[in-house]
Amino acid sequence: DFLFFWGAVFLVTTTLVAFLKKENQELIPAKEETKGITDTYRLLFSIIKMPAVLTFCLLILTSKVGFSAADAVTGLKLVEEGVPKEHLALLAVPMVPLQIILPLVISKYTAGPQPLNTFYKAMPYRLLLGLEFAFLVWWAPKVKHEGGFPVYYYAVVVLSYALHQITLYSMYVAIMAFNAKVSDPLIGGTYMTLLNTVSNLGGNWPSTVALWLVDPLTVKECAGAQGHHTCATAAAAEV
After folding, report:
1. pLDDT tens, position by position, 60-108
2. Burial of 191 (0-12, 13-18, 19+ CB in 10 A)
3. What pLDDT does residue 21 have?
4. Domain presence at residue 197
5. How many CA atoms lie within 13 A of 10 on its CB side?
6. How many CB atoms lie under 10 A from the CB of residue 108?
7. Would you tell me how many other CB atoms lie within 10 Å of the CB of residue 233?
8. Which residue ranges run through the membrane (predicted)?
9. Cα separations (Å) of 59 from 51, 199, 201?
10. At what angle are helices 188-217 and 51-62 packed, to 10 degrees?
């Protein structure tokens, strides 16, 4: 019902925009210098070869390694420890207003000449929240009872996620502001797309690696097995 309702809303609003919104014919948008796919990729290659852009790309591709495990694995581990999926999904609801308000607030601090300062300042707090998430996973079985989890545990989880959203959006908005600021206006779309793609890749590959490393790095013990079994692999755990 939820998906059906919002699907209908999207269909109605986009249809209204298509029929009611008129283009301003007087203002002719400046065309980018690129002409086709080949020229665009040549341009992107020439941009990425610039020393400053190359350094920035290396920074962005490695900057999120420190908190990738906490971001990608915490929710899965909480479910593994017995926290119901529907409760975790419900806890995401209070985050929605926060996610709407945060960019508006943070943009005031990233509008200046050095938007990346906000990125640097938020990073240590986001790293510390990784320890907080690890504590939440460790704490879950300690407070679990027959009826589930106490209200104060969910309150701590919501507060932790809210603080995490603040650091996450501080870094996200700062990067977007920086990309918009340094992009050449003549090829703004191409330039910004390149930097934003690298930024997105910098957030995705560490999370993928973190998820892949969960099994090899997890210490398991087999109860009731004949002989010594470490259960290090999925096949051994199944046996």
Report:
1. 999 999 999 999 999 999 998 889 999 888 888 888 898 899 988 998 8
2. buried
3. 86
4. yes
5. 6
6. 8
7. 12
8. 6-22, 43-67, 87-111, 123-140, 152-175
9. 12, 9, 12
10. 30
**Residues 6+ positions from 186 with CB-CB distance below 8 Å:** 30, 32, 33
Q: Examine residue 176 and state whether it is found in any structural domain, yes or no.
A: yes
Q: What is the dihedral of CA 158, 162, 168, 171, to 10 degrees?
A: -170
Q: Rg of the Cα trace of the chain?
A: 23
Helix (H) or strand (E) holding 17: helix 2-20
The residues pairing with 222 across neighbouring beta strands, listed in sequence order, are none
φ, ψ for residue 148 (rounded to 5)?
A: 120, -130
Phi then psi for residue 145, to 5 deg, are -130, -175
| Residues counted in the chain | 239
The Cα 220–Cα 233 span in angstroms is 9
Q: If you average pLDDT over residues 121-131, what whole number do you get?
A: 94
Contact by Cβ (8 Å): 202, 61: yes
Which tokens belong to 158? 């919501």
Q: Does the residue 219 lie in any domain?
A: no
* Whether the Cβ atoms of residue 94 and residue 158 lie closer than 8 Å to each other: yes
Write the burial class of residue 136 (CB in 10 Å: 0-12 exposed, 13-18 middle, 19+ buried). Answer: buried
Number of domains composing the chain: 1
Which is nearest to 174 in space by CA: 5, 74, 59? 59
- What is the CB neighbour count within 10 angstroms for residue 111? 10
Residue 122 lies in a domain: yes
